[in-house]
């Protein structure tokens, strides 16, 4: 049975923000989009103003902007309080000499301070660089050095993982604890810097198959795309309680954890702490979460916990979304059977700034498909010559340029930036997919060696570079090994230097070496020692694809044994 023949799930009747996809898509123009945002009236643009201050000006200052939950801790802020806090942080950033265009990094756990710090940097015209909370020294240093970070907001615990002396541009380190302890001064000053569409706003580091992580820079113009997708795809209404499980160090956590929901005036849930099915269900029940955005690995983990969900009242949930990795049909059917709610898959990338292919609440879902193009977005499946292939044929998933969410540049790397646009008029994603007659897009695989583990994008080069720093390792090749729950896991093949013998202790030491220097999710879950690695005959480059082919073949043999 092909994916196309799986049971379609029809929409539940409802009053959705986008009632008629086909009609809206036919007439949609980006120039007309963004109605309701203040810059459309005033011409004055700043993401932080649109996301927070605008709502206070419009009389919603007393509405709850966020609920923070971590263990037994509970904090809630209104939009007015979030505005005051961003002003407070903004004043302190200014006092520390931050000016328009400076890079301000934020290295904090998933707390209100993390969200507020990001917005305050953006408010004063700086470029915010949120870092994932589990990064270790090397990962922090590489990213901050690449774009010349000037200031860092962190806390007294996480600063231990910041190698300050190795970041020469870093002038100031501020602790969230100290900023919070300083009294807010209502000086009546307007800290908002009005920005041009093309001024930089946010930088996220992301991985490809080659080289170190790249800095994807987004400009303030993303506001329109993020606002419209929050309205139509997240389907946010004024009484919604919205929870995105991702950390703002990842693009899902910033765009759909912070910007899109707050542009649409949602009450946002911020959850600290680790994944545990009971905690997640308890949180949904306690806060009455209505919209929930997460990733397939998390849903699969919940599914594997079986009946735990029966102990909680999850009836508040009306809309669930997924992103980051293939959403398997079993998960969609599970949610539909157990919760009576569909899971809406969405596709986009760090580089694309916002949703491009989506399942909308008012439209049918074909399980196995990521959905259809967002209004204003045209998808093309291309062959090697850049020509559009017939429907049903697998090819390179590409998108007609431009659109407002599209990245502005790759920091300091024009060649890399240009490589996304190798066919005139198209952005090439690096994913392979096909599109059916009704425009639904079906993901097949990556077109390169990038690894996707639990929805986190992992570049094999970053892991390999770290592995060969270990004294026992001569060479290393890293691949994504298929895994039932996590999609893929990181697997390393290594050749040992002379004088070293393979032992469980040595392999564990190597794994810990990567974990302690880079991050836990980058550490190989499996390490296999080989006599030599497969290489190209001419350039001697390690053939990751060959390693992957061997691994998949071996797993098939193991399973059949
Ligand atoms: O391969 C695709 C996969 O994640 C990549 C983008 O990763 P990142 O920039 O980290 O952004 C993740 C969330 C926006 C894509 O090139 N991907 C993303 N969404 C899906 C997906 N793969 C399958 N199905 C999806 N819905």
From TrEMBL:
Task: Tell me which UniProt keywords the record has, alphabetically.
Answer: Acetylation, ATP-binding, Ligase, Nucleotide-binding
InterPro entries referenced in this protein's UniProt entry, alphabetically: AMP-bd_C, AMP-bd_C_sf, AMP-binding_CS, AMP-dep_synth/lig_dom, ANL_N_sf
Enzyme Commission number = 6.2.1.1
What processes in GO biological process is this protein linked to?
acetyl-CoA biosynthetic process
- Per the UniProt record, one Pfam family is AMP-binding
Instruction: State the top-level EC class.
Output: ligase
A GO cellular component annotation in the UniProt record: cytosol
AMP-binding enzyme C-terminal domain mapped to chain residues: 462-541
List the GO molecular function terms.
acetate-CoA ligase activity; ATP binding
In this chain the AMP-dependent synthetase/ligase domain maps to 58-411
Tell me which PANTHER family the record gives: ACETYL-COENZYME A SYNTHETASE, ACETYL-COENZYME A SYNTHETASE 1
NCBIfam families assigned:
PRK04319.1 (NF003313)
Protein name, as recorded: Putative long chain fatty acid-CoA ligase VraA
């Amino acid at each position: 049975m092909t994916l196309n023949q799986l049971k379609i799930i029809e929409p539940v009747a409802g009053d959705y923000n986008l009632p008629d996809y086909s009609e809206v898509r036919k007439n949609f123009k980006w120039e007309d989009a963004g109605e309701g945002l203040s810059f459309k009236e005033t011409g004055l643009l700043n993401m932080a103003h649109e996301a927070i201050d605008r709502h206070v000006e419009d009389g919603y200052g007393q509405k709850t902007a966020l609920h923070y939950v971590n263990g037994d801790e509970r904090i809630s802020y209104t939009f007015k309080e979030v505005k005051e806090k961003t002003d407070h942080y903004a004043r302190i950033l200014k006092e520390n000499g931050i000016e328009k265009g400076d890079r301000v990094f934020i290295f904090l756990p998933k707390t209100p301070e993390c969200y507020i710090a990001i917005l305050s940097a953006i408010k004063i015209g700086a470029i915010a660089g949120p870092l994932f909370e589990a990064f270790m020294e090397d990962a922090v240093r590489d990213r901050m050095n690449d774009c010349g970070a000037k200031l860092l907001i962190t806390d007294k615990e996480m600063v231990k993982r910041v190698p300050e002396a190795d970041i020469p541009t870093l002038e100031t380190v501020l602790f969230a604890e100290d900023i919070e302890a300083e009294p807010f001064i209502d000086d009546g000053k307007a800290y908002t810097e009005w920005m041009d569409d093309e001024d930089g706003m946010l930088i996220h580091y992301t991985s490809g198959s080659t080289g170190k992580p790249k800095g994807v820079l987004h400009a303030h113009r993303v506001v329109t795309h993020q606002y419209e997708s929050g309205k139509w795809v997240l389907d946010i209404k004024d009484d919604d309680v919205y929870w995105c499980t991702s950390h703002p160090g990842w693009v899902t956590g910033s765009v759909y954890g912070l910007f899109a929901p707050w542009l649409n005036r949602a009450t946002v849930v911020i959850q600290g702490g680790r994944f545990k099915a009971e905690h997640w269900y308890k949180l949904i029940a306690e806060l009455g979460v209505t919209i929930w955005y997460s990733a397939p690995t998390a849903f699969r983990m919940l599914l594997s916990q079986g009946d735990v969900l029966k102990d909680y009242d999850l009836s508040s949930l009306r809309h669930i979304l997924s992103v980051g990795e293939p959403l398997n049909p079993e998960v969609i059917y599970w949610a539909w059977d157990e919760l009576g709610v569909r899971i809406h898959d969405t596709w986009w990338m760090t580089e694309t700034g916002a949703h491009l292919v989506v399942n909308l609440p008012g439209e049918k879902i074909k399980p196995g498909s990521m959905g259809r193009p967002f209004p204003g977005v045209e998808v093309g499946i291309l062959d090697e010559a850049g020509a559009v292939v017939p429907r049903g044929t697998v090819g390179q998933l590409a998108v007609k340029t431009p659109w407002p969410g599209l990245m502005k540049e790759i920091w300091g790397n024009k060649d890399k930036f240009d490589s996304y646009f190798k066919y005139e008029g198209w952005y090439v994603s690096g994913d392979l997919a096909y599109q059916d007659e009704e425009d639904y897009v079906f993901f097949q695989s990556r077109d390169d060696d990038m690894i996707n583990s639990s929805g986190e994008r992992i570049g094999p080069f970053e892991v390999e570079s770290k592995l060969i720093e270990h004294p026992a390792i001569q060479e290393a090749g890293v691949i994504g090994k298929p895994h039932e729950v996590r999609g893929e896991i990181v697997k390393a093949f290594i050749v040992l230097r002379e004088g070293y013998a393979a032992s469980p202790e040595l392999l564990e030491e190597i794994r810990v070496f990567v974990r302690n220097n880079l991050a836990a999710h980058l550490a190989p879950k499996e390490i296999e020692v080989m006599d030599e690695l497969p290489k190209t005959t001419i350039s001697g480059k390690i053939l990751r694809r060959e390693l992957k082919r061997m691994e998949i073949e071996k797993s098939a043999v193991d399973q059949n044994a």
